[in-house]
Amino acid sequence: MLLVKWKGYEKKSDMTWEPEENCAGAKDVVEEYFESIGGRPKYSAPTNKRSRPSTSGTPAASKKKTKTTPSNESPAPIDEPKWKPPAGSWEDEIQAIDTIEKTEKGLICYIQWSNGKKSQHEVHTVYKKAPQRMLKFYEQHLVFKETSSSNQAYKDDE
Question: Is the terminal CB of the chain with fewer CB neighbours within 10 Å at N or C?
Answer without folding.
Answer: C
